[in-house]
Amino acid sequence: MDMPVRTSEDVDLDRLSTALGFLMRLAQLKIYERFFEEVGEHHLKPGEFSVLWVILHNPGIRQSVLGQRLMIKRAHMTKLIRALEDQGLVTRQVPDDDRRAVEITLTPAAADKVRQASHWFFTYEDSVGANLTRDERQQLTGLLRKFVGID
Amino acid sequence: MDMPVRTSEDVDLDRLSTALGFLMRLAQLKIYERFFEEVGEHHLKPGEFSVLWVILHNPGIRQSVLGQRLMIKRAHMTKLIRALEDQGLVTRQVPDDDRRAVEITLTPAAADKVRQASHWFFTYEDSVGANLTRDERQQLTGLLRKFVGID
DNA sequence: AAAAATTTGTTTACAAGGAAACAATCTCCA
DNA sequence: TGGAGATTGTTTCCTTGTAAACAAATTTTT
Prior knowledge:
2 copies of one chain form a homodimer. Chain A has a domain at 44-127: Arc Repressor Mutant, subunit A, CATH 1.10.10. In chain A, 58% of the residues lie in helices and 7% in strands. The first copy, chain A, has helices at 20-38, 46-57, 63-70, 74-86, 108-127, 134-148, and strands at residues 61-62, 90-93, 103-106. A 3-stranded antiparallel β-sheet of chain A has the order 1-3-2. In chain A, α2 (46-57) packs across α5 (108-127). The interface between A and B is large, with 70 and 70 residues.
């Protein structure tokens, strides 16, 4: 990896230590870092997985809708989908009722792959926040769901 | 901006909708998006600001320590510090007791600038999570602090 | 004290992601 | 009906951040 070992904890963050945006960024970085440590490169990356997972559960979803829900910009989505297409994981289809749009579907091979990947993906997700109590983890999940406006 | 307007909420996320890592990523993206909408480009970016803020409160802090606390990798820190140096905002000094290290200090001009910037920065930070109740926001902050291991 | 291993910062090459401009299509309304 | 304006996806260029290899300095081992 990269980070050194000698940890000096005596850094004064002042007001930053209670700033919600700052804490969220740190939390996210921590989650990603541990993800790559534990799950490694052998599998799908988190971004790729979430895209494929959502396509699996919403066959024929349009790029724009996918991007809105996962907060992926259109320019970036184009690249992601092309990469997945090049790997033979998704199929693009222009619908008749709106020939600007593109509908995405998983190939059968990809569906299998995603279901397999979901095993270790959600195993990891379940391990996130293990330094919190069961109740705290539950609370945090609920608060984040409200924060981002899911349900 | 970029995101389209027509929002289709009927996307099935299945288990993803309770996955902590996924929710955290979404939350972070939402915060960043709103940051750039509201605060705009006229001021410091959040990453730059946090670096300068921490240097202000820890004069002579070493790059490595700064990086550990803000979870910025060394390769990236080098670039950030050089950019700040080029803007005349920080000073680099190699200490006698360890000539590999670099100690960073703000220039007087930068100290002023950071104190000014802190006004709108923390105003924004205070507005994060406005769709939560006061108690929920408090809870979320506390849980995130425990999650990332601050205090 | 000398060799081996570690730490720190840097460089280089690359991946992830965003902004702006664009073409094609669709919608709305005068 | 026929523009005017909006939406969708794409392309190009740019910013942010990472990985790997490296040099210099320090620490550890023997």
